[in-house]
Design a protein that fits this description.
mainly alpha, about 75% helix, transmembrane helix, transmembrane, signal
């Protein structure tokens, strides 16, 4: 009978098992692309030379790819003839050097692994506030980085966000099916504006990242907690007592972020407009979410809110894609997007789903200004 190690069977060792899962994600994400990119780069280099030797080498690599796609352990010390049992034609030892794409796949795998650890720990711990906030911050970091990569790889912004929403819907339906049900008519109409606001925030954030840096977005968004704090005090009298530490902490965060990212501040007028419009939508969204989730007569489950956000949020994006003439290019973009581009779409969709769900959970626990402060802290 097979006996597993104690650290894999002990119920108290959840953290260790989750970190093993993180390492597994990273290895799987980097291993296969590494082999594929090694073959592709060598083949392209020889074909570009246009010599007889280059043609023979390219043909040899084509045969090798079909017959033996996995690189042996002694790859770095072997010739092609030694590896594939073919006559050695003067080709020296071929060494594999990881390229930027391999490192990008490794980064994606590690980000998803970290997110998986945070989500798993949030379900294993009884500390709701701490685990929800930590999972939300982890999802925010992953989504911010993955969206930047996905926006530069997938050349159709509206379609990218629509696919992310579709992936999030599938995940929520599979994971929270028991919580889904027909919402009351009153709760449905009260939450519907939030769905369109979420769609606008996602779209403007990705449009903005096409012409600016992440540091620029972070500097501008650090003003939001100050604005939200003032509006929340005026509208909901929260917090009831304003202490100097509240205001000082927000200005200190703004100053620190500006000092850190000022040398990487770069933005076009179009991206600046998108950032400011997204900031406006964010303030309204956080205040409305906080008001509804804290309202005692609002009984709609978070899973239903998520499905509404993702379903109705697609409609404005479809309209924008038609107005910007992006929709006619969707078939071309889908056909030309490489498989690692689709990996980024899937990864950003999973991360966005976690961000949306835990974002609603955190909005139910803390004030709107605190949510934005935590968001800026993660960035």
């Amino acid at each position: 009978m097979l006996t597993l190690p104690a650290y894999l069977t002990n119920p108290a060792c959840h953290v260790r098992r989750m970190w093993l899962l993180l390492v597994f994600f990273g290895v799987v994400a980097a291993r296969v692309p590494a082999v594929s990119s090694a073959w592709t780069s060598c083949e392209a280099e020889d074909q570009d030379r246009g010599t007889e030797f280059g043609v023979r080498s390219a043909n040899l690599l084509q045969r090798a790819r079909r017959s033996q796609p996995i690189i042996p352990r002694n790859w770095t010390n072997s010739t092609f003839g030694d590896i594939f049992g073919l006559p050695n034609q003067g080709v020296g030892p071929v060494r594999y050097v990881p390229g930027p794409r391999v490192l990008s796949h490794l980064q994606t795998g590690l980000l998803l692994g970290t997110l998986a650890v945070s989500v798993a720990l949030s379900h294993l711990s009884a500390a709701e506030v701490t685990t929800s906030i930590s999972s939300w911050i982890s999802a925010s970091v992953c989504t911010n980085l993955l969206n930047k990569e996905a926006a530069s790889t997938f050349q159709a912004t509206c379609l990218l966000v629509i696919l992310q929403m579709f992936i999030a819907n599938i995940v929520v339906i599979l994971a929270r099916f028991k919580d889904l049900g027909c919402p009351s008519v009153r709760d449905f109409w009260r939450w519907l504006p939030v769905s369109f606001l979420v769609s606008g925030m996602l779209g403007t954030s990705i449009f903005a990242l096409e012409g600016t840096t992440v540091s620029t977005v972070n500097i501008i968004r650090n003003v939001l907690p100050i604005i939200t704090f003032v509006l929340e005090k005026i509208l909901f009298n929260s917090p009831r007592i304003v202490r100097p530490g509240h205001v000082l902490s927000m200005f200190l965060t703004l100053f620190g972020t500006t000092l850190y990212g000022i040398y990487n501040f770069s933005v076009t007028s179009y991206s600046l407009g998108m950032i400011l419009f997204g900031c406006l939508l964010t303030v309204v969204d956080k205040l409305l979410q906080r008001h509804l989730l804290m309202s005692p007569d609002f009984k709609q489950p978070l899973a239903v809110c998520m499905v509404m956000n993702n379903t109705f949020g697609m409609l404005p994006l479809l309209a924008v894609s038609i107005l910007t003439h992006e929709a006619p290019n969707w078939s071309r973009v889908i056909a030309k997007t490489p498989w690692d581009g689709w990996l980024l779409v899937l990864a950003s969709g999973l991360s966005g789903c976690c961000l949306g769900f835990y974002g609603l959970a955190v909005s139910k626990l803390v004030s709107a200004a605190s949510v934005l402060m935590l968001q800026n802290t993660s960035k």
